[in-house]
Amino acid sequence: MTPPTLDSLDWLRPNLLGSTKMVGVMGWPVEHSVSPPMHNAAFRHLGLDWAYVPLAVRPAEMPEAVAGLRALGFIGANATVPHKRMLYDLVDELTPAARAIGAANTLHIRPKGLLGHNTDAAGFQRALREADMPPEGRHALVLGAGGAARAVVYALATSAASVTILNRTPEKAEVLADAMSAAPASASIEAGPLDRKTLSRYATRADLVVNTTPLGMWPQVERSPWPQDLPYPREASCYDLVYNPRQTQLLRQAQAAGAAISDGLGMLVHQGTEAFELWTQQPAPVEVMRAACEAVLET
């Protein structure tokens, strides 16, 4: 077989010449991430000489990885599970959102230092409005109290929504409620156990239910945080952060009750557009990024 020549590797030529601006996503594992095709589609669409690459980083090696990105001239990177809290501790400066949430999912490498940002909250707010589920003045029932819940509760609290956090370990929900109670524009934030009795009590009061747990995510697609024998309230819109599969068991339950529903693809796209605009200082091609995600999820 004839080895490839430089002329046959046109897609590599800018990088070989050292002009390509590099960004990526750090995770462990990271093979499942749809961020590389999403961002690279946006770069191609706008004719930008940028590249977004997956970066498999063991948790113990995060400090060296961040230092390496800076040394290699990267513009920035995203951090996914399990690195968001560690990235928070490795930057020189934090945006107000990252500081309040207690995690950073986006790194911007600047001459004056490393900026840690959290784009999940703004991405969730954009996704809610896109789905015609504005949070202002609503009572939101948040299921789960993990890392994703922190961004969701912050987004809701800063949108003047009342929030109830329910978690199987209620102590974690209480810790999160206390941490977010000082959020600007916050209405009330309370916490409780994620069980049938409590869900039944709050169901009739909720305007919006947000699932931040992994229940229903592939491959355990038949699981749901909502009990099968508890009717879902048709007046409560349902937003599930899970985007694979696109329609979870929870969303099927809500849809069958006549409630408005949305999967987590919108939040995935909009947290990506926030990072894109932070790095490039250009408006993100939202629909191009959404189409790239959909293409990956359909394969």
Q: What does this molecule look like?
A:
Helix content is 39%, strand content 19%. It is α/β, with parallel strands linked by helices and 299 residues long. The protein folds into 2 domains: 6-119 and 267-298, Leucine Dehydrogenase, chain A, domain 1 (Rossmann fold, 3-Layer(aba) Sandwich); 133-259, Rossmann fold (3-Layer(aba) Sandwich).
Give a quick set of tags describing it.
12 helices; alpha/beta; Rossmann fold; 299 residues; disordered N terminus; 2 domains; 12 strands; six-stranded parallel beta sheet; 39% helix; six-stranded mixed beta sheet
Strand order of the largest sheet: 2-1-3-5-6-4
Number of helices: 12
Distance between the termini: 31 Å
Instruction: Return the string of H and E elements.
Output: HEHEHEHEHEEHEHEHEHEEHEHH
Shape: globular
How many DSSP-defined strands?
12
Unreliable segments of 5+ consecutive residues: 1-14
Beta-strand content bin: 15-25%
CATH class of the largest domain: Alpha Beta
Radius of gyration: 20 Å
Structural class call reads alpha/beta
| Overall pLDDT level | 92
Q: How many independent structural domains?
A: 2
Corresponding CATH architecture of the largest domain: 3-Layer(aba) Sandwich
- The proportion of residues forming helix, as a percent range, comes to 25-40%
CATH topology tier name of the largest domain? Rossmann fold
CATH H-level superfamily title of the largest domain? Leucine Dehydrogenase, chain A, domain 1
Main sheet: strands, sense, barrel: 6 strands, mixed
